[in-house]
Structure formats: C-alpha cells, structure tokens
Specification:
mainly alpha; 2 domains; 7 helices; 0% strand; rod-shaped
Length: 154
C-alpha cells in the first residue's frame, strides 16, 4: 500500500511541475514533462525511503507528569525519614495507612475498627501489627512494598 501511495505522490508532484513549468515558465509541454519526470522519481524515492506512508498505530506511552514524579519523590523521601524517626512514622505515615486499611476492610468485610479480630485476619498479622502495635516500626522497603500490594488486593 505504501508503494502505491508513494507512486501517487510522485505522479502528483510531477503533474505539479508540468503545470508549473508550462504555464508559469511558458515551457512547451514535452519539455515540461521531461523536467518533471526526474522530480517525480525523486519524490517517489524519498517517500519510500522515509516511510512517510507507514502508519504506526501503537499509542505513545503516557509520560508521567511533573506532579506524579514530584509526588513519588516526596513519598519516598517521607518514608525514608519515617524509617529512622519514630515520631514521623507515628504522626504522618501510620494514620494515613490506617485510614487506607480501614477503608479496604470496611469495603470487604464491613469492619468498623482495626482492633476487630477479623481485621487482623483480613490484613494479615504483620500488616495489622504495623498499623496497630504501639511499638511498630516501618519494615524494610521490600517487606513494606509486599504489605502494600497485599493491602491493595484486600
């Protein structure tokens, strides 16, 4: 299909050259055609080589916007600070995690409090302890990521 389109493009360019050379320059039609043939051939070759008519239907991937990158960097920084600072973990990270977890178990099991024994069963002991135990600390990032994936599946 692209060869046909390249040929049509070459013929169109050649026709434009013939018309332009004949009417604008006053050249005889025979000479105008002779001048237009190489120009049309070059147009065909350029169209074939550059793949002008090959359509790429694959969508471009969405690029994360500046806000997404900034938010991810900010979250990573806050988690890193909370890993070493108990007060930050207790005041900034844990309340947000508790709200998310409570919302998840409320939707799944209609549980209204994370102290409910069923909440421990739904969340898993390690995640439940992270959210409710007074001496809980932020675990290793790999373990924490696994907990968050499990929470998402809840």
């Amino acid at each position: 299909m692209s060869r046909l389109r390249a040929g049509l493009l070459g013929a169109f360019v050649a026709l434009l050259v013939v018309v332009g050379a004949h009417f604008a320059a006053g050249m005889p039609v025979v000479w105008a055609v002779l001048v237009a043939l190489p120009v049309g051939a070059v147009a065909v070759v350029v169209a074939l080589v550059s793949d002008v008519f090959d359509v790429d239907w694959t969508p471009e991937p969405d690029r994360p916007g500046a806000g997404v990158s900034l938010h991810a960097a900010s979250l990573a920084g806050r988690l890193a600070q909370a890993a070493g600072d108990r007060h930050r973990f207790d005041t900034r990270i844990r309340p947000r995690l508790r709200r998310i977890a409570l919302d998840m178990v409320r939707r799944k099991e209609n549980i209204d409090d994370l102290d409910d024994p069923l909440a421990r069963e739904v969340l898993g002991a390690d995640l439940h302890d992270l959210l409710t135990a007074p001496d809980a600390r932020l675990p290793h990032p790999t373990t924490f990521a696994a907990m968050m994936r499990r929470l998402e599946e809840t």
